[in-house]
Amino acid sequence: MNIADLRKSYEKAELSEDASAADPLKQFERWLNEAIHSEVPEPNAMTLATVASNMRPSTRVVLIKGYDERGIVWYTNYDSRKGQELAGNPFAALQFHWVELERVVRIEGRMEKISDTESDAYFHSRPLDSRIGAWASPQSQVIDGRTVLVTNAAKYAAQFMLNPPRPPHWGGYRLVPDEWQFWQGRKSRLHDRLRYRLNESDWIRERLAP
What we know:
26% of the residues lie in helices and 34% in strands. The protein is built from five helices and nine strands; from the N terminus they run H-E-E-E-E-H-E-E-H-H-H-E-E-E.
């Protein structure tokens, strides 16, 4: 099969200005809930894009852990590649792709670390193995093999027992949006694409050509 011949006709839904929410957060919440209720695989998975100081972009998949009018929250190792890139350039982008619903949401804005109190609360809600894993993995660093991770996990499990504290290098980020895009696949590649951009304190909604 020629990969160039792979095609799909998008015909599940539409996205109009009249039917969409005036507030992008409300539109996002509507679509996220529909993705969850439709039982699409990992509806909370999102691609995070960052840019390093040498202007090279990189992406990876992370999981949304919260959202409100302040922005989108997720957690990671601050010493990881993404953490180092965000330290040098706090602007980033997120993308949700709900294939089964033929929908994409793109979010751009500035990243900021959330408070220690918020990070502590989420960390202590995680399963014990995940909390130990946050100590065991020197994320993004070169290691000699999986034995390093297993050995570290055993060491920290013995050290902290059932109550590991949150590592100082681990916590949450919040993306504060200044632009949202909602994409709904349509027939004949005439897709629906609405952009919300922040103008001072107001959201401007406009249609973009697909």
